[in-house]
Amino acid sequence: MTETTVLDLAGVIYSSGKVFDGLRTGRLDTENFLDSGSLEGVTSRADLALLEDLRDVAQHVIDHSGEKIDAAYVRSINAKITRSGPLHPGQLRTAAQQIGVETRYGRHKPEALTDSALQRIIDGAIATGDDIDSALSLFVDLARAQPFEDGNKRTALFVANGFLLGVGSDLLLQVPYSDDDPSIADQLNDRLAWAYVHHDDDDVKQLLRQQGIRRR
């Protein structure tokens, strides 16, 4: 298998930027930025900061593929989100910050985590024995736990892909998204919100399996 590059993760970067952070740059311009650093088509400083963060996180995942997926690894992913993310990148949020997520199914306000509690979530997610299900569980469980001030879904997505790269899979987990059909992203957000509030992951994992798994 050829060496993985950031451009191989272009679909992960583009789809997550669109769905999670409102990226306005188009697909081809995103790929050109990742390939050559071209700023043509990058229309705002916010887009540039987001693309730089996603590029750096992707490179970090590639550089550290094969490392143990543990709490320190997850924090290192969030720590790369510095231009468009939290004020304290890589630091677990505290209970005093009162961080929660408003959803159509009610407010989701998970407890603040310690390193050991975060590790238990990781261990539970990767204990399935199936690489794809473990990656999906890492994404959903970490996104639901909201360990950080910001960038939680991005962090969860790249942790899941770091896991897949580390086990030698030729598959990647992208965010279900279509330039031509915004309802796909709406379905993801709706099913993820349901999983947050009701701890029922079946629907969101089914969507991710059907429309999020891609070969690199």
How would you characterize this protein structure?
By secondary structure, the protein is mainly α. The protein has a domain at 68-215: Fido-like domain (Fic-like fold). The chain contains nine helices and four strands. Strand 1 (101-103) and strand 2 (106-108) form a beta hairpin. It is globular, with a radius of gyration of 16 Å. The mean pLDDT is 95.
In CATH, the topology of the domain at 68-215 is named Fic-like fold
Mean pLDDT: 95
- The rough form would be described as globular
Q: Describe the main β-sheet briefly.
A: 2 strands, antiparallel
One letter per element, helices H and strands E, the order comes to: HHHHEEHHHEHHE
Task: Put the structure in a nutshell.
The chain has 216 residues and is mostly helical. Helix content is 54%, strand content 6%.
Question: Topology, pairings included?
Answer:
Blueprint: H1 10-21, H2 27-36, H3 45-63, H4 71-79, E1 101-103, E2 106-108, H5 115-125, H6 131-145, H7 152-166, E3 171-173, H8 183-198, H9 202-211, E4 213-215
Antiparallel strand pairs: 1-2, 3-4
Helix pairs in contact: 1-2, 1-7, 3-7, 4-7, 5-6, 6-7, 6-9, 8-9
